[in-house]
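Hi P.,

Sorry for the delay on this. The queue was packed all week, but I finally got your sequence through. Input first:
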Amino acid sequence: AHQSKMDFFCKLGYGKQDICKVLENLGQEALEDDVLKELIRMGSKPQALESQAQPSQPKLVARGSCSTSPGLKWLGEDGSDSSDSLRPIVIDGSNVAMSHGNKEVFSCWGIQLAVDWFRERGHTYIKVFVPLWRKEPPRQDSPIADQHILGELEKQSVLVYTPSRKVKGKRVVCYDDRYIVKVAYEKDGVIVSNDHYRDLQNENPEWKWFIEQRLLMYSFVSNRFMPPDDPLGRHGPTLSNFLSKKPVLPEKKWQPCPYGKKCTYGNKCKFYHPERQHQAQLSVADELRAKTKVPLAQGKEEQRCRCSA
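Then the structure:
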């Protein structure tokens, strides 16, 4: 039991010293949920997962250098490579699978569709959290479809099982939502779920902000995984910017004004006006003033000329 807990929290990226310290404080029989809470309270942060998963792999050293410079980073799935501008993805496996199965069947194919969608976009860090008891043979009250997909995703180090066990015939399940939010928060990534995690929002103010700003909802349309184009509403970022670490602001010239020549915003309009390309973009009020001042000024000059004559 002790070793399985060590392995599980090592998979999440926590240091062995921190885990041992917590287990000493809480006792070896402490539930994984309580251990995670204590790790959060201690302020322990996961280290790079790949540096633990591949300890034997040597780091790259520049030619002519005898030591690794602090600037060199692992080119791993954690997205630490500076060229990778996409956010890490943490998927609520239960939510996605039940949504694809119309809330009646735990459809593992739905999880595969979601993972494939993010892979096609180029995301390298994708983690799916599913309770461990989903490994068990399906029962009538909890049917599972395409269960073999879970094993395949686990082999690819994409799927992580949250702990569960049986005590006196009753199943004790750890709260998988806490793992989902915790890992997404630590990785500064995106949570894929249609759940709002209200209880966790009330539990931690930092998590509240994170859930509000980084929750990506979705729909399944004819076996097609479809997140919204505007995840935070019509005035928020585009889906592409939402999933990027460095949002790309659209250039004004590529966004023609929907009102065209009828636009009344003048120089305050944020869109492109081809008809204003060679003229100073005055506001409509300033344009009218300019037009009315010119003939008045001309008339006064003519009067002055007559008087002087």
